[in-house]
Write a structure and sequence with these properties.
With 273 residues, this protein is α+β, with helices and mostly antiparallel strands. The protein has helices at 7-20, 22-25, 31-47, 54-58, 256-263; strands at residues 71-74, 79-83, 93-96, 107-110, 124-130, 134-144, 155-159, 165-169, 175-176, 191-192, 195-199, 208-209, 220-225, 229-236, 242-251, 269-271. Bound molecules: calcium ion (CA).
Length: 273
């Protein structure tokens, strides 16, 4: 059965509701903080040279909900917020909720065999739809769930198979690319077939927003998308007992703190017809 609203129209309605209901939906984001984030988001949109109006995005085949997966996470105001456990996982991933400060139904941790140099095992895919092209920063909220050494059990694999660019970047502007991506330079340590090893630093066991790649030379994680549409995040198993609570993409013009505050209050998921 067809409905009167396609997915894009529904997203607009949801986004409008977020604006109207900001006092109740964005529980931990003040109006000033959200306004600032919105203003920055608009600037970023202009910086990206996006002269495409939203009407053009409506008719793009790339906007279709991926029927092979059955759902898509939606960007709002330059932010894609995902509860990591809100997906179907292959054997080896275990849902945990042990009183830690996590959101949604808790977090997932890998309890299968380690895959230290073998990305693509225990893979889970997160389709997401963006209406604002540009470069997005990637973060996840994770913790190591065994022992007290923060350099163990602290990483998993990440790939953006259909992004226009996928790279690590340091504060000084230097950039690295995954091995086998056809681009150089590449990170220190494990990487292959377009996958980055993404690790968390520190010996504190709390779940925290942080994602880095390249051993002993931490680079932040970015992906670029030249047009609006549906793209995919792929995450696969590496270290045992790496627990992941949430995923976050935000346009690079937004501040990390603003994006995290906004993302902590929503996760937009649309089921395909
Ligand atoms: Ca969660």
């Amino acid at each position: 059965m067809r409905t009167h609203f396609n997915c894009t129209t529904l997203l607009r309605i949801i986004t409008l509701c977020l604006f109207v209901g900001s006092g109740t939906v964005f529980l931990s984001c003040s109006e000033d903080e959200f306004s600032e984030a919105m203003a920055t988001s608009g600037e970023e949109d202009n910086d990206a040279g996006n002269s495409e109006d939203e009407g053009n995005a409506d008719s793009s085949p790339a906007n279709e909900c991926p029927g092979d997966i059955g759902f898509v996470f939606e960007e709002a105001n330059g932010i894609v917020s995902i509860e990591f456990e809100d997906n179907d996982f292959p054997q080896g991933w275990v849902l945990k909720n042990d009183g830690e400060a996590t959101s949604g139904d808790g977090y997932m941790q890998w309890e299968g065999d380690p895959k230290m140099n073998a990305p693509g095992n225990g893979t889970v895919v997160f389709p997401f739809r963006i209406t604002q092209p540009g470069t997005y920063r990637f973060l996840w909220k994770s913790s190591f769930r065994a022992g007290n050494d923060g350099t163990e059990h602290n990483d998993s694999w990440l790939r953006f198979p259909d992004a226009d660019d996928f790279f690590g970047r340091k504060g000084d502007g230097s950039v690295i690319y995954p091995k086998d991506s056809g681009k150089t330079p590449n990170p220190n340590g494990s990487s292959s077939d377009g996958w980055f090893k993404i690790y968390r630093s520190g010996n504190d066991t709390t779940f925290k927003w942080q994602a880095s790649t390249s051993d002993h030379d931490a680079h932040d994680i970015y992906a670029s998308f030249s047009s609006s549409g549906v793209y995919r995040i792929e995450i696969s198993a590496r270290s045992t007992f790496h627990g992941i609570d949430r995923l976050l993409l935000f346009q690079e013009g937004l501040s990390q703190n603003d994006a995290i505050q906004a993302a902590d209050t929503f996760s937009l998921k649309t089921n395909c017809d």
